[in-house]
Amino acid sequence: MISEMWSRVKFFFSGKRRSEIDEEIAFHLQRETEANMAAGMNEKDARRRAAIAFGGRERAREQCREERPIWSLESVVRDLRYGLRGLARNPMFTAVAVLTLALAIGANATIFSMLDQALMRALPVRDPGQLVVLSYAGSISGHAESHGGNTEGHRHEFSYPMYKDLRDQNTVMSGLITAAPATVGVTWNNRAESVSAEMVSGNYFDVLGVPPAMGRVFDPGDESAPGANSVAVLNFDYWKSHLAEAPVVGKTLLINGTPFTIVGVAAPGFHSMVWGQLPGVYVPITMQKIIEPEWDFLPDHKSYWTDVVGRLKPGVSTAQATASMNTLFLQLRTAEFALQKDQTQKGRTDFLTKSHLNLEAGARGFSPLRDDVQTPLTIVMAMVILVILMAVVNVASLLLVRAATRAREFSVRYALGATGGQVLRQLLAEGMLLGVAGAAIGLALAPEALHLLIRWMSSGNPGEPAFTATLDWRVLTFTMVATVVASLLFSLAPAMQFWNPKLAEALRQSRSETGGSLRFRRTCVALQIGFSLLLIVAAGLFVRTIDNLRKVNAGFATDHLLVFYLNPLLAGYPSTGVVPVEQRALDAIAALPGVRSVGATNDEDLTGDGVSGNVIVPGYTPPPDDDYDVELPWVSNGYLQTLGVPLLTGRYFNAGDTATSDRVAIVNESFAKHFFGSAGAAVGHHLNRNRPQTDATIVGVVKDVKHSSMRDPATPMCYTLFSQAIRTTGLIYYLRTWQDPDAAANSIRAAIANIDTKLIVGNLATMQQKIDDQLLAERTIALLAMTFGALATVLAGIGLYGILAYSTAQRTREIGIRMALGARRATVVGLIVREVMILAGGAVLVTIPLAILATRAVRSELFGVSVMDPLTYGAGIAVICLVAGLAGFVPARRAATVDPARALRTD
Amino acid sequence: MPPSADLLQGTLDMLILKAIALRPEHGWAIAQRIQLVSNDVLQIGQGSLYPALHRLEYKGWIRAQWGASENNRRARFYSLTAAGRRQLEAELENWDRLAGAVNLVLERI
After folding, report:
1. What is the ipTM of this complex?
2. Which of A155, A382, A484, A687 is at a distance of 20 to 30 A from A847, taking alpha carbons?
């Protein structure tokens, strides 16, 4: 058995050369002849008798060949060579087919690569399967800083004391790590810039299994006491790009004005336990007060700000660990509850009874970015798959048309004794050639396309993008498999037609339109129309979405607006010096030529973040369980005017409101209506934040503006002055320019540097750029949808033209007869076009319900368009009918111009 | 020409295997031996010899190599593989059983 298989394998590679068999038979005959001659015959007779004794030589040869296996390498190579010759003879067809496949496969490789990086790759750490992400359910009281990724019952931010207790008292984890992101000012070689950083626990690198590339990484000794560990580890890419791979171990770096000693550089390829975060520098978590000078989180049980990930002990299952950790967690929460102010039964339920810890698989890391891109990427992947299907149908129909002209060739082969299997093999070989050629070109183009896409997506964003433009083995494997499957599918199309060896009849008869082939052609046409309609409708819907989003009225004028971020605390200013320098910056910018007005706020608009909280209005009793969140930005005097927020009643902030004058506030329309019933009634009332020194008088009411994003409705807002605030903070400056805002960038940097060279101007960009950044996901989908829609239309046009040209050519005789019998040219053309349109109409009718179903699934990504938007569907149907009609009209017209007499004679 | 007995395909295989059991032979020599040893009763239509040889080679029971014949010409020599040897034993056993059974029936009927 095994030897049989082994010899089969050997036979595949060596086969039996025809010449060998000939040589053997010749030898045999020679010996027989000699034996005969030795018995006394003359040479001629001896030879004759030998031949008779041997029997039929040809027959022996054939029978020997029959013993050969069908699948030998020699015959495969022969099929390939033959296929290549055939394809080279039809360069037009080959070029179109290969390009179609290249586009489809290239698009697939590009998008799948992004999908793979975002959704499937595990973290580049040791044993990522052992990692779990911690989150919890239960109420909190105090300050929560979210970095995204929270859902109902899954809050990811823990307090530092809770983290330490969980880490030190658990029995099921071999290590528990924590990390929190921050933006810091880094000064190296007297150059200061704003850098993304991560505050991490001492065991961070150990537990993840990330070695140092140079020097050392942190150990638990680097988490000894608040403020005591001024050491830093650099990220490898950051060290390469920003520090020019200088020898840095032992050198000093200023972070927020404080000297830190660099102890090492992390291994290349590692960024964070959170996918999508790209910190440049890691510092111990105990240095939090220096990294975030406005806050002192470390000792506070009621500040929730850092994410936690753990590594299970070997042999411990997630279920076991969850049970054990929950017991510990509840103990700790009970102890915390005793310190709460709210000791009511309800409070107890919310805080304790309904509280539990979740452990989720963390092989791919915790990632809010992943949650954001998941739906858009899946949508785009679905579109890519549609494109591939279209390409397959397209190439299948092209092959079908070509095969129809080879009917004679195949029937001759059958007559000469080819089996169905051999013909099938030939067709498959040709299909594979096309598939592999298309895949090769597509894969060659994919990295460049990926690079362009990533660059387009991250244009305007500082720092490195989270995606890399390389194709890894998983993408390549997927592409190979897709190519092979696709090639098989479209090779089988002509194969189905020629499977039947009884094609000798085709030699005699000229046009035999078997029902099967006609039906198959019609199916191809219908499929192409259907797929391209789906893609065009998708394109239309997404393009309208992005259009609507761009046109949404933010409530304030977004043109000629320049934005940047300034935080003096990062440059080492003490908290008493912050407000004066911020004010100086405001004055300096206002004095610049070309600047119309300038304002500042601590709560950036349209970025999806917010600083919100509760507001107490004396005289207003909120209904029970009311949790009315109000946005609470701290602004400068000129902020509202700079943004152009219309004033409804009362007054704006003015120069009379200073740090020492009475506290004032301005509220927006929603706020006023909620608390006072109408906009006008608000002026003059007081409000406070349930903290000392926050009582303020309302002096004005402004219109609602969009704050967190263009999609979300306006929120109630209460503006107070940053100079009158109880704490210092960094500010975002908005300035409106007369001319093009980009031109002002350099003068702004110069003006700030003039005040103090240590100050860092961060994230300088125009408002329009920031809005576009917010809409990145939608813009990407719209761009890709438009590309694929256009691609689909072109493919449909080509494919339809091919099939219809062939079908019409088939009917030349019929047309000739009709015209000979008196039909006019227009009638004949109309006949053919009408048939095409009926087919198209049928395909459209079937596709529309499918399209509606599909778009309902992506409803969440749409904005301002209904799922059954008539404009989009109408336009899509019109386009596709136009394409189909044109594809049918051109060949029909050509056929109808042929002289009827000649048409009748065509064979 | 003496009448040639119809040979079943299976028996032909067995004869070929036995013919090269002792030492490798080329195609013509195998045919000659079988013819000679059977006193010319068994005349293999020599055209059917080569397909049989190829079939046996494909099944892995015999192995072929090019070598020099008695008169220094190139010829393909066939020899038994280990699997072929096992197959030969099995077939011989079968043949004995079959022949024995037929004999029994012929005696007793």
Report:
1. 0.83
2. A484
